[in-house]
Amino acid sequence: MSLNNVAFLLAILLFGIYDIHGLLRIKHDNVVVCYVASWAAYRQGNGAFSLENLRPEHCTHLIYAFAGLNASNWTIRSLDPWADMEKDGIGNYKKMTALRHRGLKVSLGIGGWNEGSRNYSMMASSSESRRTFIASTVEFLKMYGFDGLDLDWEFPGSRGGAPYDKQNFVSLVKELKDAFREHQYLLTAAISADKSTINIAYDIPEISKYLDYIHVMAYDYHGAWNKRVLPNSPLRSKDQLNVEDTITYLLQQGAPAKKLVLGLAMYGRTFVLTSVPETSKINPIGLPSLDIGFKGPYTGEDGFMGFNEICEALVLYPQEWITGWDNESSTAYAIKKDQVVVYDDHKAMIAKVEYAKRQKLAGVMVWSIDTDDFRGKCTLLHGDMALLDGHNYPLMKSINTALANNTIPPVEKPQPSSSSVQLLSNSVFALSMITMIYLSR
Ligand SMILES: *[C@@H]1O[C@H](CO)[C@@H](O)[C@H](O)[C@H]1NC(C)=O
Ligand SMILES: *[C@@H]1O[C@H](CO)[C@@H](O)[C@H](O)[C@H]1NC(C)=O
Ligand SMILES: *[C@@H]1O[C@H](CO)[C@@H](O)[C@H](O)[C@H]1NC(C)=O
Ligand SMILES: *[C@@H]1O[C@H](CO)[C@@H](O)[C@H](O)[C@H]1NC(C)=O
Ligand SMILES: *[C@@H]1O[C@H](CO)[C@@H](O)[C@H](O)[C@H]1NC(C)=O
User: Where is the signal peptide (predicted)?
Assistant: First the structure.
């Protein structure tokens, strides 16, 4: 029997790899919700992401971001008919919903940062405009074959919204759910991770009744706007602006763990230091910075860098960038002279996944799958995945592997030496990993 066969059997035993829909998945019981940013198609070079680059086996749910609101007559609308529609262009709606045949749930996201809050606030403010919106949404989902709607109103009660949005958002969610029931459409929402925004925007117990899942956007805690280098998505911190405090707060407010989906950022926030440190071998967290961060080559947005851009820079210019790990926030950073990026690498992702598992959350969500290393340009960086040479989606693979890893976490005390059982289980795990990746080529 070849090594591959042995590894394959072990992998089946451990993870039950299955293939019902022609996809080789790492099996686990959690949801992995993947947002796809439609505009990623317009990025240049290695950054250009089309749906042909998507590997659906890494996700259980996909959300196509974003549709918009026509504020003249309160109907849902395509924001990019060329990208979305078949008759005008490349037809991504139908391409996305075709993936339902491979066992995924495919929803349409509506809203997003650029759509603002004001028009949604007005739409939600009367039962008549809500009814128009809901009827148009049901028709729209049906027309393109989506499984559901993801509300990305950012945010009720702020950014041009009104104080009564909180109540109207409950009505909107309830009435959507009522209309969706007979079609069995999924209803989800992406919510802010910021406590003060949560307080203004959401009646957590009420919306929890009607939403199938709540996607917690547990990132953007910090950025260049702080004028200080701070983590985008700290797992822990002393100032309460962190993943664990957000989730604890939502649970206290009455959100059921089984509906909470923890958001993971496949990007970092960038900073320009006010002065170049004397040594780059320092932890830059807390250093003063300018109020605008630098851009990534493909995403081209101030203060933002996709993981694919970060890892490509580290691989192309290893002598220029110094990388490190911030223990308190469980996030990674990289420094090059006065430039700093703080981001989630695979270790940071695993730490968050393990936290989500401990809290028995429904699973995790990623914003967004199009900035993982989807071309497999950075294999050199993934030391413990060195055997996965030439392979793509290192973060998605780390996330799914961590979800499938059901080892009982050891009680927090130092282990004097690894027992033979631990050693065996580690070897089995390593073999299975190799196999899984081998099989998914
Ligand atoms: C919005 O609705 C109005 C009224 O029906 C229509 O004239 C207009 O073309 C729509 N806009 C878009 C972008 O669909
Ligand atoms: C809100 O609706 C108005 C009127 O249709 C439109 O001009 C405006 O662009 C919309 N706002 C945003 C942020 O899309
Ligand atoms: C709203 O506008 C869209 C786009 O012009 C149109 O297709 C739709 O029929 C209108 N809906 C209502 C309820 O007026
Ligand atoms: C790392 O962080 C953990 C949890 O916050 C803490 O218990 C531990 O003491 C820290 N280790 C170091 C070396 O700072
Ligand atoms: C699996 O989980 C255990 C317990 O949390 C951890 O010690 C181990 O490193 C994990 N293995 C992998 C490969 O992630």
Answer: 1-22
Closest CA relative to residue 307, chosen from 362, 232, 389: 232
Tokens of 62: 């996909």
Contact status, residue 235 vs residue 331, Cβ threshold 8 Å: yes
Task: Indicate which residue's Cα is closest to atom 5 of ligand 1.
Answer: 73
pLDDT digits 0-9 by tens, 221-236: 999 999 999 999 999 9
342 closest CA partner among 217, 192, 223, 194 = 223
The structural domains of the chain, with segments of one domain joined by +, span 29-265+345-404
- Whole-number pLDDT of residue 24: 81
Q: State the DSSP code for 410.
A: P
The DSSP annotation for 131-199 comes to HHHHHHHHHHHHHHT-SEEEEE-S-TTSTT--TTHHHHHHHHHHHHHHHHHTTT-EEEEEEE--HHHHH
The identity of residue 132, as a single letter, is T
Tokens of 168: 């109207």
The secondary structure of 98-138, three-state, reads HHHHHCCEEEEEEECHHHCCHHHHHHHCCHHHHHHHHHHHH
- Residue 228: name the closest of 280, 275, 271, 278 by CA: 271
pLDDT in tens, 125-181: 999 999 999 999 999 999 999 999 999 999 999 999 999 999 999 999 999 999 999
Q: How far apart are CA 437 and CA 441, in angstroms?
A: 6
Q: Which residues pair with 189 in a beta bridge?
A: 151, 214
Find the Cα–Cα–Cα–Cα dihedral 311, 315, 320, 322, rounded to 10°. Answer: 60
* Centre of ligand 3 from the C-alpha of residue 286, in Å: 51
Q: Running DSSP on this structure, what letter comes out for residue 216?
A: E
Q: Pick the catalytic residue: 57, 154, 309, 312?
A: 154
Nearest ligand (C-alpha, residue 78): 1
The one-character DSSP state at 273 is B
Enter the pTM of the model.
0.90
- Report the amino acid identity of residue 71: A
CATH of region 29-265+345-404? 3.20.20.80
Element (H, E) at 271: strand 267-272
Decide: 209 and 234 in contact? Cβ < 8 Å. no
Which pairing describes strands 61-70 and 31-37: parallel, antiparallel, or unpaired? parallel
- Residue 399, phi-psi category: left (phi > 0), alpha (psi -120 to 50), beta (remainder): alpha
Cα–Cα distance measured from residue 312 to residue 153, given in angstroms and rounded to the nearest whole number: 33
Mutate to test the pocket of ligand 2, among 70, 119, 125 (most ligand atoms within 8 A of CB): 119
Range from 78-92, 237-251, 258-272 carrying the lowest mean pLDDT:
78-92
